[in-house]
Amino acid sequence: MFSSASESDHDRPHMRGLFAFLAVYGVVMMTFATINFGSGSLHPDTTETWAWGKEFQLGYSKHPPIMAWLAGAWFAVMPRTNWSFQLLSIVNAGIGLAGVWMLAGSLLGVHGRWASVLFLALTPSYTYWALKFNANAVLLSSWPWTAYFFFESVRKPRAGFALLAGLAGAIALLGKYYSLVLFATLLVAALLHPGRDRYFRSWSPYLTLASGFAAMTPHLWWLVQAGFPTLEYALAKTRFPVAVAGQHTAGAIAASYLCLGVGAGAFAVAFGRNSWDLLKRAIGATGKRESAWLIWLAHGPVLVTLAAYLAVNGRFATEHLMPACFAMPIAFLTTSRAPITGRVVRRLAIAALALWLPLTLASPVLAAYGFAHGGDVEPRREIAVAATRIWHRLFDRPLRFVAGTREAATAAAFYSSDAPSYLRLDKPELTPWVHAEELKHHGVFVVCRASDQACIAQGARLIGERPFRTTQDFTARHWGSTSAPQSFVLFILPPADMDSLD
User: Which of 94, 181, 413, 416 fits 422 for a cystine, CB–CB 3.0-4.6 Å?
Assistant: First the structure.
């Protein structure tokens, strides 16, 4: 039941088909993203990722370093624009879909691979949510590949797959510590797997642990030296009232399953009258020993997340569960013994087209509505441009440092033509790439929301006795529309060789 299918899954034509699909997927996602977000400001999580990534570190104040490294490496060769960051997001999600394709190939034929990938292309995790590049989105690419290499090492205990499983697992954990949920899932699935005796008697588990630990060592060294800031940030998620944490976690789990609804509906249409029988067989397989590992792989991340809430009062949001459902279509198709034909795949492709073509065509209307009624309409790009212009007019030199309200300051780091370094006002030690002497020598531009009294007080202390301080109104613009004015307080500490701001 769980052996590889007889179809030649690794034939070049099939791989060319996958690459062609990913190219089409990329074009559609890019078109949608450009129209919806192209001329606005990127999400603060995304600009913060860039602000970290331009300063190579072995870890950062909130998260381990992979997402920042990817952003830093990407923009070393790509232009600093919205479309470029969105392209990085799409490439990341596409790599995850390729990992699902490989994992499905261990259990299903080529049609099963297509069905699994198309199902996920109908979920927000690998589409709309994936367009915000942050610590959750980066797991979309690493989790499927970690599972693929791991189960290849379980099926065929070989040094190569075992080492790759450890390396992929380290990449996942260096993306976000939430990947411990994946590790717990894989461990239980391995204990349930029919090949567990051979696997655990082999060298594979030890090679996986060794390669993973070796890849993690630099970050672990940094973690100790820095005083465990990322662990403190993670533990802060356990300090909410029990009712609040429970409400968030229950809502996240419910939303994660509800978000599979479009894919499930597409499966129902594709399989037609067989759908009910397939569902009954898949449900019946949950009680069978030979399929227990696969059922657990599909639902384990969600169940382990629930267990983490119960154990440590963790507050989880829907975003945390973005990568959790990557194996669900594979498990359903395998345990239901679905007859996946070319006709089924064509129907699924039509369903994907029927969803994304109207959404793409309607994206100008969606973009206009979101700008008019959305909650995240700040003139962050406009402030960055204005701050750079003011600095150049006053000092005729590049802007080296920015600080202030996180959203505005990290956007200034990204959108300013000078690509200044970001200083965290409340805890400067968490931006160690900014040294006090350099700050005094080169000066700093501080941007605070007028409503952010903590930022304003911190900015005033940083600037000192003779600050330049002004309050200005800015408006956000998106495809010709303009938002209501919003007030921001601007501070400037001049470079050391400038006597005044006149």
Answer: 413
